[in-house]
Structure formats: structure tokens, C-alpha cells
Write a structure and sequence with these properties.
By secondary structure, the chain is an all-alpha fold. It contains 7 helices and 2 strands; from the N terminus they run H-H-H-H-E-E-H-H-H. Strands 1-2 form a two-stranded antiparallel sheet.
Length: 182
């Protein structure tokens, strides 16, 4: 079974699928961060569910007479909990590292198996080189897209809106309820 698997070149196909899955993951994550940053820039009129949820939570704080002290921490918490499909947005940004590890595992396992079997040097290094090249591409794109700074921009723009506009607006609307629970 192993010989058939290796003779058909299926491990190369597995590496290509892992590389493509990593690229799709990077695209999905980058697209969602870009959309959220655009929605945060127009937060006052946004209909996005994350933005509406954060505005609703801040309004809830003011209704019971509380004022959020650290809006950056509060917004960061809700962004980390925001889910896209089966995972959080933060999880999507970490998923390419899993694909890189799997790429190296497939390439390294194939390298070790073929080396111990005594195959030619060219056949041994082709799949290992493909795995290293795919990992290098994914790592380079992950560093280029820099999801941590995108998350910081998103947190900053939402917390800026909450701190500078929404807090004053809600404090004025609910000033008579300060300290009273409805």
C-alpha cells in the first residue's frame, strides 16, 4: 500500500492540497479583516453583526449605570470571540501555521521513507523541496498580510468610536439613570 501510494505521487497531491488550503485560509482571513475594518470606519451606520453587538453591549452597560473603563480590552474580547464559520477570526489567522506544519510533516515523512528505502537522491529531495517551498510561500504570505496589526487597527478603530462618540452620547441619554437599575 505504501509503495502504491508513493509510486502514484499522491504525497505530492497532498502537499498541493495543503498549500491550496493554506492560501484559501489566508484569503478568507484577509478578506474578513478588511471587511471588518471598513465596517468599523462607518460604525455609526453599520449593520454588521459584530459592530451591532458591540454597540448593544456598550448601551447595556450604560442602561445599568456602568461605564466601560477599558474599551480596548472590551472590544478586543468581542473580536476574539467573533466567529466565522466553525472558528473564531483569531483561529482563522492561526490556521495557516497548521497547514505549514502538515506540509513539512508530509514532506519529511516521505523523505525519510524514501531515503531508508534507498531511492535516488533526486526522488528523495523532490517532495521535501516542494514541502519546504510551500511552507516558505505560506509563511511569507502570512508575514506579509500581518493579521496582528490588522486586528490592532480593528480594535483601535472600534474602541475609538466607542470612547469618543458612543460613550458621550449614551452618558447624555442615560445620565438620569446613573446608579439606578431599571
Amino acid at each position: 500500500m505504501k509503495d502504491w501510494f508513493l509510486s502514484q505521487g499522491l504525497s505530492l497531491y497532498v502537499e498541493i492540497v495543503l498549500l491550496m488550503a493554506g492560501l484559501v485560509t489566508l484569503w478568507i482571513t484577509g478578506r474578513n479583516y478588511k471587511r471588518l475594518i471598513r465596517e468599523a470606519d462607518s460604525m455609526g451606520t453599520s449593520e454588521h453583526r459584530l459592530v451591532k453587538h458591540i454597540k448593544l453591549k456598550v448601551t447595556g452597560y450604560f442602561k445599568i449605570g456602568m461605564h466601560p473603563e477599558d474599551t480596548r480590552a472590551m472590544v478586543g474580547r468581542y473580536i476574539k470571540k467573533y466567529r466565522i464559520g466553525p472558528m473564531s477570526l483569531h483561529g482563522w489567522s492561526r490556521l495557516p501555521y497548521l497547514f505549514m506544519t502538515a506540509l513539512l510533516a508530509v514532506g519529511g515523512g516521505n523523505f525519510i521513507y524514501r531515503w531508508t528505502k534507498g531511492e535516488s537522491l533526486y526522488q528523495v529531495f523532490v517532495l521535501l523541496t516542494t514541502a519546504i517551498l510551500g511552507t516558505w510561500i505560506l509563511l511569507g504570505l502570512t508575514r506579509f498580510m500581518d493579521f496582528e496589526s490588522r486586528e490592532n487597527v480593528l480594535i483601535h478603530s472600534i474602541s475609538d468610536y466607542v470612547s469618543n462618540y458612543l460613550n458621550q452620547k449614551l452618558a447624555f441619554e442615560y445620565k438620569e439613570q446613573a446608579g439606578k437599575v431599571p
